[in-house]
Every structure is written in C-alpha cells, then in structure tokens.
Amino acid sequence: MRIEQNEDVHPMLKNFKIALMCLLLASALVHLLSHAQQTRIKEIASVQGVRTNHLTGYGLVIGLDGTGDQTAQMPYTSQSISNYLQQQGIGLPSGAGAAPQMRNIASVIVTGRMPAFAEPGQLVDVAVSSIGNAKSLKGGTLIATPLKGADGEIYALAQGNVIVGGSGASQAGSRVQINQLSVGRVVGGAQIERSVATPLLQGPYIQLALNSSDFQTARKVTDAINTHFGAGKARALSGRSVQVDAPENANERVSFLADLEEIKFEASLPAAMVVINARTGSIVFNQSVTLGPCAIAHGNLTITVSATPVVSQPGAFSSGTTVAKEKANIQIGSEEGLLFFIGAAPKLEDVVRAINVMGATTQDLLHILEAMKAAGALLADLVVQ
Fold first, then answer.
1. Residue 36 — very low, low, confident or very high, per pLDDT cuts 50/70/90?
2. Coil, strand, or helix at residue 287?
3. Distance between alpha carbon 78 and the CA centroid of its chain, in Å?
4. Whole-angstrom Cα distance, residue 6 to residue 11?
5. pLDDT tens-place string over residues 216-243
6. Largest Cα–Cα distance of the chain, in whole Å?
7. pLDDT tens digits, 301-330
8. Burial group, residue 123, by CB count within 10 angstroms (0-12, 13-18, 19+)
9. Most buried among 25, 85, 130, 364, using CB within 10 Å?
10. CA 176 – CA 204 distance, rounded (Å)
11. Is 344 inside any structural domain?
C-alpha cells in the first residue's frame, strides 16, 4: 500500500515546528533570566561561631647569606640567639664580645590563621616578616616558633624553609630589587597543636550572619529556608542575623547545614555605593549607582614657581666678593572650565557614559564626585578609603 503525501500539509507542519522551537527557546530564555540573579545562601552568609583564629609569634630565621640583621644595631636578635643556644645546652662566655655578631640571622614575626574545626596535626601556611634591618630572608630557615592566639595560649608550632617571591642583587653601591625581600611564606610550616571549640553543635538552633546588613536580604533568606524546610523553621532577628532551628545530632546537623547552604533565592540589588581610594586614585561603582540631572564646571588652576640663578661680580681691583643669588619667577595659569550638563542616568552604563563626557582625570573625578554627592546629584553612598 502506498500513502500519497499531501504537499499542502508540509508548509503548515514546517511553520508549526518553527513556532514550537521559538516557544521552547523563549521558555528557556525566561528560565535563564529568572535564575540569573539567584544566589546561594553560602555566598552571602556564614554560620556564627564557624570562624578562623589569628595566630602570631616571634621567631628567628637562620641560614641567610649575609643579609640578616646587623646585630650591633638590633640587640634583641643577638639576645634571642643567645637564649636559644642556652636552651640547647650551649653556654656562652660572659663579658664583652660574648654576644654573637652574625649576619645570617634575622628576627621575624610569624603570622597565620587557624581555620575553623582545625585538629591537632593539621598543617597551615604562615607568613614570615622581618622586624629588623635584614636585607633579605631569601634562603633562610625559620626555627621552631610557638604561635599564640588572642588568649596567650600556644595553638601551633611553626618551622620550615622560607619562600621569598622577590629577588635582588647589589654590587659596588648599586642595587636592583624586584618585590619585597623581607617578607616570605612557609608553606605548611605550622602544625596545629590544639583545637578550638566551636559552638556549632551547642543549642537547638544556629544563627546565620549575613555579610552585609540588609533587611530585604534577611527576609528573603528567611522565606527561602521556610519554603525549603517548612514554615517556622527560620526567623530574621535583624538585618544581619537569621536564626534557624537545627537538629541536635552532630551528623544530622552537618547534613542540614550542607542542604541549607545550597538553597538558592533571588538576591536583592546592593545599596548604591561608590568606593574611592584617595591614595591610588581608584574609583569603583556598583550596579545600583544612578545620577540625577546636574550641571558641572571644573577648571584647573596651575601655579609654576621657577628659580633663576643670578651672579653678582665685583668691580675690577675692588675688594668685593662674588655673590650668587636666586630670582624667583611665579606664573599662574587658569584653564577655562566648561559647563557640562549631565542628564539623569538610571543605569550603570549611562553613569559611565555621562562621566566620560567630561573627560576629567581620575584625581579631578574624585573632587567632582564629592561635589555631586553634596549637591544630591549622585544617588549613592560615597566611601573614601
């Protein structure tokens, strides 16, 4: 049996396929856009009590190639090595010249961070920074250094070879240096000796600390948790803290936190903010910054002071002396300040486009933004670092 195909059906079927494909693409695009602003709870909040602890200690770096402290000027370095040798059973003779005067030793401060839930035997990295006049820590070895916490108790012991990222050379008074030579790291150089108790498993609930204080974010996090685990599971205590009921069994609580951190919700836009670093001239806008209409004029005033040497010669066969003086020349120049009109800019790209129209330098822009904020045209918080 042969079935004849109707030629008139094919165009309709083809159009139907195209329409169906467009519908599927539109649905996928809507799905992507609906999830574009979604974030996980672990990215905007942390569990209170789960934190790192800072450790610090005083130590000695030995084995330097003549680039250590000048012990004559740094008495604590020679005193430290003398105490260390005495602890090793090596007594030094008393009297003048008894203190070691070696250029292969440097006094350092060792700093590190003890991660949450760290257990004895775990290794962490430490930073080694010179506190004397050592020229370089390259090639040195950190001897056993106790690291203490804020309570004065010893929590780790650091020791190992110091890795310095910089390099340099000097000869006949000339010196070339790349990066810092007086700071280095000891990878895995500190061994944890005791653990720090955390309140994670204490009490019938946990508290989430938001990275920034925002009441809308706190409400959205609370709603997302209650939607996932059930009503009444979470409650917002403030714009930065959310309390969540949690299982008291250790294994169940860890599993509960693992699920909790992966909950996604639609994050709210951050508060409008412009961060200015006056030292480096860096300016950063976030996506919420907007501008109101305003007019700006900014002119540059230049003052140039130059000195010209003037020599006064005495007459022939006179008893006078030659006198050298300086004549100061002062020039003041002022560039014309054009008046720029900036319309309302509701989006970040509009803000950037409006500011670039002025063609101002970064340093000028710092003052312009401060003036715009004072005039109410910059709709953002201005943070000067």
1. very low
2. coil
3. 36
4. 10
5. 999 999 999 999 999 999 999 998 999 9
6. 138
7. 555 656 677 767 776 666 667 776 766 666
8. middle
9. 130
10. 61
11. yes
| Residues near 291 by beta carbon (within 8 Å), at least 6 away in sequence | 342, 344, 345, 350, 351, 354, 372, 377, 378, 379
Pairing mode of beta strands 234-236, 241-245? antiparallel
Whether the pLDDT of residue 278 is over 60: the answer is: yes
How many domains does the structure of the chain reveal? 3
Determine whether 59 is exposed, middle or buried from the number of CB atoms within 10 Å of its CB (0-12, 13-18, 19+).
buried
Q: Token pair for residue 65?
A: 């190639």
Q: Are residues 160 and 59 part of one domain? A: yes
Q: Please tell me the distance from the alpha carbon of residue 150 to that of residue 253, in angstroms, as a whole number.
A: 29
Same structural domain for residues 241 and 312? no
Task: Please give the structure tokens belonging to residue 148.
Answer: 């203490």
Does the CA dihedral 361-367-373-375 come out positive or negative?
negative
Query: HSE-up of 107 (CA within 13 Å, CB side)?
Result: 18
- Whether residues 210 and 144 fall in one domain: no
As separate numbers, helices (DSSP H) first and strands (DSSP E) second, the chain gives: 7, 23
How would you classify the pairing of strands 234-236 and 205-210? Answer: unpaired
Q: Which of 367, 45, 368, 62 is nearest to 237 (CA)?
A: 45
Residue 222: domain span: 203-266
pTM of the entire structure? 0.65
